[in-house]
Design goal:
Two copies of one chain form a homodimer. Chain A has nine helices and no strands. The first copy, chain A, binds a DNA duplex through helix 3.
Chain lengths: 207, 207
Amino acid sequence: MPKLVDHEERRAHIIDALLRSATNSGLHAVTMRSVAVEAGVSVRLVQYYFDTKEQLLLAAMERLATRMGERVQRRVRARGGATDPRGIIEAVLLEAVPTDEESRAFHLIYTEYAVLSVTDPGLGGQQFLAAPSEMEAFLAAQLTAAQRDGAAAPGLDPHQEAVVLLAVSAGLGLSVLLNQRTADEAVAVLHYHLGRIFPTPSRGAYA
Amino acid sequence: MPKLVDHEERRAHIIDALLRSATNSGLHAVTMRSVAVEAGVSVRLVQYYFDTKEQLLLAAMERLATRMGERVQRRVRARGGATDPRGIIEAVLLEAVPTDEESRAFHLIYTEYAVLSVTDPGLGGQQFLAAPSEMEAFLAAQLTAAQRDGAAAPGLDPHQEAVVLLAVSAGLGLSVLLNQRTADEAVAVLHYHLGRIFPTPSRGAYA
DNA sequence: TCGTTGATGGTATGGTTGTACCACAAAAGG
DNA sequence: CCTTTTGTGGTACAACCATACCATCAACGA
């Protein structure tokens, strides 16, 4: 055998090239050739590591979903002290708002995938089903804990509020992606809404 | 001259064919041929009424935006009695939740266009900028009026709440589109959230 | 009545895309 | 040492796409 190369590393390299290519011209414009050029390899190589384009797209989607999970978890962990429901909730929801350019690119591709998976039968849309419902339960649990501690308003339905929170962050994130709003505005609105759920701001937050 | 045909009617017919075609296989899969077949005309005819594909897509997008406006206005008017802020707000926001199949198809294409317009330079993304900010002001005004009437909680910031409402309905609508939630669930959550803004339910609404 | 013009069909064309095929190099195993 | 396997490049190919071009037919204006 020749160089005896690390397959997983090569695959990751190519997938990253796909994501970069999609960032520039949109997921719909991604071709085998554009990925190959971006990765600096021949088209044959892309074929070699991912037999077909569909499999390449699928692998990239899985990697994207994994990264999304990592992003959220990193945000939660960055908050350090585990037992501050409002802080945790805020951290998780802020992840949906694309602030820097890298985050924007990430969320754009993620959204493109989500929309594409509705019509494209090859892209199993199941990936986009699991994560949100987990998140829903997680947020509801945090809200319940916050109510027990007296931090959150007592009259609220934790589950319904969790769904609302998820919808708000998704909606705000989308509006930022569509250039309807700046990221700063979205963050401010999110803070405002959290202020309504947690009557006493935990840290002199907005409004 | 021959039949002396109504151009606008022909154009509308072809655009409708495009929307139908996009409903089945996604906007990205729409081709001149698929539109022609769906419209029951030759490809040449599509070329004749819309010189290029880009112009066809653009015209369809404009028609879509117009329809969206009509939909919202129809909902508002269907409420009849003009001066019920909660009812009006509810009607407007419910439009974003795809209930029947026709509404679902409509919103799917609309979302596909919105996402596409981010990367595609030909599709002027300005169309998607104007409407939401108008809506924002409209909702804020309704909330202010509701506060004056004592229907809405007094402590709220009408503008921020308007943005939240818009984000919630967009987020819920998207989640329904992505099959993460049923339309009924989304409607229930929206009712719940409105119940928090309007402490006295106007009509024995949910929660 | 006749040519001019609007409306339509068919087909050719140049480009692009995904994928299959062929060739070759290089390292490992016998 | 030779053969088998793994990685890589180049290229060919069939399909499809948007668009340009050519032809035709019918009706209105003169």
